[in-house]
Amino acid sequence: EIQLVDSGGGQVQAGGSLRLSCVCSGFDFSSYDMAWFRQAPGKGREFVAGISWGGGRTYYTNSVKGRFTISRDNSENTLYLQMNSLKPVDTAVYYCNTQPDLDDQHPGLYWGLGTPVTVSS
After folding, report:
1. Cα first-last separation, the chain
2. Who contacts 95 (Cβ-Cβ below 8 Å, separation ≥6)?
3. How confident is the model over 9-27, as pLDDT tens digits?
4. How many whole angstroms separate alpha carbon 42 and alpha carbon 39?
């Protein structure tokens, strides 16, 4: 059974930092591209960041470039998202996703349950 368990969300003030984690099981993590998406209240789910299976290529939506860093540890089957200089507009539920189309920033089939991030001004 494929499982993606995302965690690390919370409440922070603007300018603060959080590190999200996604522990994966049930598939060969090291062979697949991975991504983070987010869904703000009242909005659709949007691509945030993606990383290739070996970690050599990373992708970011423009609004988080220079502030967020996606990484992975294939030995631990874990995906990370380091979020710095957080802004209130980053408030959303963040979801881990496997097998995305990174070129088109489209999600793959499997999702984590989501971890909420709230940034106050």
Report:
1. 40
2. 6, 36, 37, 38, 39, 45, 111, 112, 113, 114
3. 999 999 999 999 999 999 9
4. 8
